[in-house]
Amino acid sequence: MLKFLGKLLGRDLTTPSEPIDTNVSEDEIWETLHPNHKTDLFRNKKSLQAFLEFAMRQLSKTESQRLCRVAKRALSQGENMLGALGEVVSGEEGQRRGQWAFIQLDYAAWDEIAWQASEILKTYGVNLSWDGDCKANFSSTVEALSDLSHWLIDKGFALLHFETESDSYYSIIVKKSDLLVAKQLAAATQLTLYEHAEFFHKNG
Questions:
Q1: Spans of all domains in the chain
Q2: Does the predicted model carry a pTM greater than 0.90?
């Protein structure tokens, strides 16, 4: 009977089978149950890298590549796009002083804006400092960012803001001529970038 069933099934049921390996990682189980996961992950890594390389092209190639690896590793560990960006912006292995690319602020930390904006402008080769006295002149982060935005426009730059769905703010400074490209690349990574007028309307 076993030989007959074996012929029907194309297997030799009279020979002991190989022991089944039960030591399987959760990642392997996930990939088996979700065969499209690898494809989606590869696509997400590729689009996020394209955006980050654009956003950080004024940094050294070594630093840009390092931060891209930080983001892609975060995606591999289960973070969504915003979470992976957060690892670049403010994670332990994220951006470093001297090669700053993103402004990161908590709700009431508008006194942190000036030094971050200055560092970013220096990566563009612009030795200008926004002179907004945050503590004296502004009562909120949004007010201070609004003033910085108007100041940057006169210098040929634009201030863009990520939708973080929280009371933390992530912003980026780009050349005005690159504004549309920045928004398109961000959209391709499922990240939303607001021009300052939109941001101020939502948060002002």
A1: 37-203
A2: no
